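pinned: reference chain
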Amino acid sequence: MNKFLLFLSLISIFGYSQENYFPAKIIKSDSTEMNGFVRYVENRKTPQEFQFKDTKTSKSITLTGLEVISVDIINKVKYIQKTISVSKHSNRADFLDSFKEFKLDEKTKFIEELVDGEFKLYYLSDSDVNQFFYSNANSNVILPLLVKEYINDNKIMLNEDYKIELYKNVFCEKNILLKNEIAKLDYKEGEIITYFNKINECNSGVKQMKKQKDYGYLQIKGTLENNFIKFIDKNVDFETENKIVFGLGAEFEYILPLYKYFFSFVVSPTFASVKNVYSYDAFDNNGVITSFTGELKSSTLSVPLNLRIYPINKTNFKAYISLPTFITISTYKSKVVNNNMEYESFVELPGAGFLELGFRFKKFELGLRSYGGSNGYMKRNVISMKYNVFNSKK
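pinned: its structure tokens
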């Protein structure tokens, strides 16, 4: 089963990439309009080429700045191609220079439109730069908003030129007091978007539609677990029938926005405790074969982190596969009672990580988990019934 789940996971990842095409309106270099579907993946790097299809089933072609000047992926994001001034400096602490001034290069790039209105806000992110830009309704020129760290007298200094630019050029005459917010404005996407929206609302009197970035969402579930635990001792060819143990637990799942919520991370705190009485024949101190009775007690508290993928991801029905990671917090206690003598045992109840095949219908879930073996002495499989008690997605 484990090999099957791993194989299915790989197939799902490669197959799912074909579904990330969304309706888009494209303005070509000759100013004509073209409609179709563009591949879109949530990514902070600004794309400079686009995979385009006339229909979802047609073959894709690659569009670059030679063919198009604007790509508007409906209800997702808009990119425009402009000539901009980009600052040439490193943001890495070990590569900072000693110049306060900016060295600007003119480049023609696709940039992302973050805010639309009288004052437009743009963003560019690539391997060399992460920079904001703006323009206003009276000009087609796109101007940079600049910030830079530099070294002066062995100290890291900060040139916040963007604050001066905003104070001089991006404001609302109806409410000059809004300028006071600039002094505390960090060079962060959320804060700068908020400032531009306030200025545009003040100037137009119309509330701005704020573009909300999708950072994923959290789900919390209560679980009822049915554990099937089998004891194995290969040294004496001993194996018990499945022992059934019930338990309660919880699951915390953070669903990532990547590939239309295809991936998530799952933390599953779980506690299990089991006791098994068994009999066996062995030589006693006098060399006589005698029947002995033993009792093995083992309990484990583990908090494993799993990676989950969703090959089937519909609104009301989902199927998923959970894969173990190497990150886990686990503790266990185990002992053997043999002829009224108690010993510490190394036989650990499996709990550190698991493979899981699961199905979800609305708020209800069924998960089939396999914890494999530990020290070759125990196997643990679990049927987990879950109910979603919290969902942060709006």
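why pinned: The longest strand covers residues 289-313. The radius of gyration is 30 Å.
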